Amino acid sequence: MQYGYHIEATNSNTVISTLDNLRSLNMIICKTKSEVREALQVIRDNGERIGAVPTMGALHNGHLSLVEKVKSLGGHAVASIFVNPLQFGPHEDFSDYPRTLDSDLALLKAQGCDVVFTPAGREFVSADFSTKISVAGVGEGHCANSRPQFFDGVATIVTKLLNVFSPDFAVFGEKDYQQLMVITQLVRDLDLDIEIIGAPTVRESDGLAMSSRNEYLSPKERSQAAKLFETLNLVAEKIAQGRVAWADIQKWAIARLETAGFANVDYINYVDAMSLEPILSPDQPGRLLAAAWMGKTRLIDNIPIARRIS
Ligand code: AMP
User: Fold this and answer.
1) How deeply is 108 buried, as exposed, middle or buried, from its count of CB atoms within 10 A (0-12, 13-18, 19+)?
2) What residues contact residue 191 under an 8 Å CB cut-off, 6+ apart?
3) What is the gyration radius of the CA atoms in the chain, in angstroms?
4) How confident is the model at residue 9, as a pLDDT?
5) Assign residue 20 a region: left if phi > 0, alpha if psi is -120 to 50, beta otherwise?
6) Which atom of ligand 1 is nearest to the CA of 203?
């Protein structure tokens, strides 16, 4: 039986041929669905919990914090590295998206990840694949306005990954807050017996949310990019003061971002933290969501808005 690959093996190519070997290895790398299913079954048979961390690779500390979360919850971590073609639009950066598999594997191993799924080519998404999972409501508006294919692509591939892994729980970053809500909704709607856990956004020292796409930024753009988080925090203060109408705060924030060097602001929205609908009552917990272009790089960020005690 072809099984998996030991990270330390030369060329990552030594076949691990028995299930007994799995338990003694630090991290198993699986390239096929059957390999990863068998690796995870060993963990399940041992009565231990599995936590999933789907990623597109080009890993940074934000991704690694999700693996850490799995470990802190007592789970064995299975991470996937798959640049999902279904979530990119025709003119988006699918072919340019950073692919750094060797360093990703080293980082995952150092973080104590147990199993990695790195499907290649058509092994995971066959040429005749034709199913689409589409989440209405939370999957509409905000990022979906400028990336209409995005959440269908995410929902479809995440459902496939969850189906292959059958984890007890899966951890997703709050950095992609709308995505987290889409996945929470689909798991509920489709009766998947998997707990979805959100993990806080990991940031650079100046506040910029870590993202694989940050490496597209020029040094000048990189220095301006932190204004997105800074502006969200200033907006939160204005909301808390309660003196200015939301529409005026929104206009102020867009102007501030444009002055700070953002070429275009896709949106900055103040919404109900669960439904992602516009907040109507000041007593609801809210979320500020934003997306803006720094040069050719689209950045997103969001922060919680605490329930106002009036
Ligand atoms: P991606 O590889 O960008 O598809 O992201 C994979 C997972 O990592 C998703 O659950 C993201 O929300 C999460 N993630 C990405 N960046 C961060 C960050 N800065 N902090 C926390 N989680 C993140």
Assistant:
1) buried
2) none
3) 20
4) 35
5) alpha
6) 19
Percent of the chain with pLDDT over 90: 86
Q: Out of 63, 76, 91, 142, which one is annotated catalytic? A: 63
The answer to whether residue 63 is catalytic is: yes
CATH architecture of the domain with range 212-305: 2-Layer Sandwich (3.30)
- Topology (CATH) of 19-199: Rossmann fold (3.40.50)
Which atom of ligand 1 lies closest to the CA of 200?
A: 21
So where are the chain's domains?
19-199, 212-305
Q: Which two tokens stand for residue 177?
A: 């807050």
What is the distance between the alpha carbons of residues 217 and 110, in angstroms, rounded to a whole number? 27
Dump pLDDT digits (tens) for 59-113.
Answer: 999 999 999 999 999 999 999 999 999 999 999 999 999 999 999 999 999 999 9
The whole-angstrom separation of Cα 269 and Cα 284 is 15
